[in-house]
Amino acid sequence: MERLKEDLRKALALALPGQDIALERPRSGDMGDAAFPCFRAAKAMGKNPAQLAQELASTIRIEGAELVAAGPYINLKLHPEIRAKAMLEALLGSTPYGSASATGETVIVEYSSPNIAKLFTIGHLRSTMIGHALAQVNRYLGCKLWRLNHLGDWGTQFGTLLAAYKRWAEADNPKLDQDFSWADEIPEKRRSPLFRLFQLYVRFHQEEEQSPEMRDEARLWFKRLEEGDPEARRLWKWFRDISLAEFQRIYDRLGVGFDTLEQGEAFYEDHLKPTLARLASSGLLQDGDAGAKIIDLSDVGIQTPYLVQKADGTSIYATRDIAAALFRQKEYDFNRCLYVVGADQVLHFQQLFAVMNKLDPWFKGRMLHTPFGMIKLPEGKMSTRKGNVIFLEDVLDEAVQRVLAIIEEKNPELPDKAAVAEMLGMGAVVFFDALNDRVKSITFTWDRVIALDGDTGPYVQYAHARICSVLRKAGGDWAAKARPQNVLDSETSIVEYKDASLPASMTGLEHPSAQALLFELSGLPEAICTVQRENMATALARQLLAIAKSFSGFYTNCPILHADNPPEVRESRLALCVATARALRQGLFLMGIKAPEEM
Questions:
Q1: Cβ(336)–Cβ(107) under 8 Å?
Q2: 573 CB-near residues (< 8 Å, 6+ apart)
Q3: What is the pLDDT of residue 185?
Q4: In this predicted model, what pLDDT tens digit does every residue of 118-145 receive, in sequence order?
Q5: What average pLDDT does range 267-290 have in this prediction?
Q6: What is the pLDDT of residues 294-311, one digit of tens each?
Q7: How far apart are the first and last CA of the chain?
Q8: What b-and-e string marks burial along 54-83, b requiring 16 or more CB atoms within 10 Å of the CB?
Q9: Which of 32, 43, 154, 524 is an S-S bond match for 265, by CB 3.0 to 4.6 Å?
Q10: Residue 493: which CATH number?
Q11: pLDDT value at residue 191
């Protein structure tokens, strides 16, 4: 298929010298497999775009395909047998469809980055799963990948937590729930030490609204922490240890991994003085109000000064981000560093990138903020300070329970019901997030986030399970052809299969429903590349939905195991089933979703 597209590009380049030959993907297979818009070329030649399309279509010949003029477009339409053979060759071979062995690029993806001593909320899902998909796709496309979790394990918030702990938690038998009636709704299994710390954090911020002097108490504790106070360091380490244990449990459930959890904000403590010295020697550091240190960026159009050291001499996350960028330059020599962080940090990253460009032109164009909209509650923005949050694990548990109830009703004999419910529940939550445009905020409602019907993860997962059921009924080794040969975990991005031979004939795949499915399968590589180009998984989620819907049409209109089918029709349609199952599983896996074989 790519060879035929390349033949068209070459033919158009000869007919239109000096023109940019960029092919597009038509909206449907009925229109063709590739399209060339004639607008720019026609304008340069002083012709009508539709007239130019007609002229080119009548003069260019591509073996194995036909050219059709449709208004101002030239559409390349592969012959049905050619399309079927091309797609089955691509999906039944041992080489992963659409992947690349090497690009020469080193890519850092920084994502998730939760704050220590705070439970995961539904808001953490976006950074974690958007980042996971970007990491998976970049690795799938051949990049050398580093997955970093820039933990919020340093900063003023620890002054708050230390002050709160000292005020209330060290008393004998502290009743931390007494001022939190909403805590009664939290399952006992979630009343962990980390949950207690979360309560302390919320309580401190509630009470400081009435007693502003408490803020000075928190700032003093953070200053003690930065100065190495033994008690502050002891408690900080304990807070960090119990947080990491809880975080790892959630990451294991999500199937998310990192190359290091050690390069959080605290990791750069020893780098702060050298970083400030370099800023000073570069002439960037200036005195701000009351002895604070700032960087003036007005010369590059950023009017807000960049604060890098507070008046009391303590650091701020901006300082640590500069130190991290310098460390990553030396340690990883990266081509791209993606910061998967909420849209409310846009100004911070504009400032950070401007500073790095001034420090060393090497950074220019290598650092990219990948912002995403917030998940909001109907009454407004979530806030851990106020305690109005939806905990991520509550959402996951609710989704799983809803799925389990449906399984008990419709398929109570299903083996491993709990495991399947976990796959589908997680699929619903993760796919919902991926399907939404990354830059738009989402209002959380239970029915939207964990929907099980419509354009959802379970719909795509069901298509995969239905195919596996067909292959099991077919007997022989058909089911094995759609089963991966490697362990699928956070350390891999490629689903590996054994080579499966092509059917002897493509008879049975000329039906329009089969051709429509083949067309949607051909769009998977471009969807994966779009994830890398646009830094969001929406295109991949939409393409998987298109494949699943097309398979439903194929399943309905093209009997696969019908007794009256000639052997060659049965074989070709089963081969297309295997190809579709492989495509769906790979696409879901890149987003962090498992594909059940039974539902």
A1: yes
A2: 508, 509, 514, 558, 560, 565
A3: 47
A4: 889 888 999 999 999 999 999 999 999 9
A5: 94
A6: 999 999 999 999 999 999
A7: 34
A8: bbbbeebebebbebebeebbbbbbbebebb
A9: 154
A10: 1.10.730.10
A11: 56
Give exposure, 317-345, as e/b (b: 16+ Cβ within 10 Å). Answer: bbbbbbbbbbebbeeeebebbbbbbbeee
Structure tokens at 441: 């905020």
Query: In CATH, what number is assigned to the domain containing residue 64?
Result: 3.30.1360.70
CB atoms inside a 10 Å sphere around CB 28: 11
Characterize the bridge pairing of strands 65-70 and 73-78: antiparallel
- How far out from the chain centre does Cα 206 lie? 35
102 occurs within a structural domain = no
As to burial, measured by CB atoms within 10 angstroms (0-12 exposed, 13-18 middle, 19+ buried), residue 448 is exposed
What average pLDDT score do residues 487-504 get? 94
**Amino acid type, 397:** D
Residue (of 582, 509, 577, 591) closest to 542 by Cα position:
591
Distance CA 486, CA 483 (A): 9
Predicted confidence at residue 380, as pLDDT, reads: 66
* Type of residue at 531: V
* Domain boundary residue, one of 20, 54, 78: 78
Domain boundary (17, 50, 78) is at 78
Phi then psi for 203, rounded to 5 degrees? -60, -40
User: In the β-sheet with 380-381, what is the strand arrangement from edge to edge?
Assistant: 380-381, 375-377, 442-443
Tell me, letter by letter, the H, E, C secondary structure of 325-384: HHHHHHHHCCCEEEECCCHHHHHHHHHHHHHHHHHCHHHCCCEEECCCCCEEECCEECEC
- Bridging pattern class, strands 375-377 and 380-381: antiparallel
Pairing of strands 336-339, 367-369: parallel
Task: Output the pTM of the full model.
Answer: 0.91
Task: Tell me the two tokens of residue 565.
Answer: 């089918």
Range of the domain at 572: 392-591
Percent of the chain with pLDDT over 70: 95
What domain count does the chain have? 2
Is 136:536 a contact under the CB 8 Å cutoff? no
Sign of the CA dihedral with 231 first, then 236, 237, and 242 last:
positive
**Kind and range of the H or E run holding 443:** strand 442-443
Residue with token string 């304008």: 43
Question: From CA 129, how far away is CA 433, in angstroms rounded?
Answer: 8
Question: Do 460 and 548 form a contact (C-beta atoms < 8 A)?
Answer: yes
| 259 found inside a domain | no
**Torsion over CA: 549, 396, 401, 412 (sign):** positive
Task: Kindly give, in sequence order, each residue whose CB lies less than 8 Å from that of residue 16, ignoring residues fewer than 6 positions away.
Answer: 41, 45, 56
- Residue 527 forms part of a structural domain: yes
Asked if residue 367 is part of any domain, the answer here is no
What was the pLDDT predicted at 183? 42
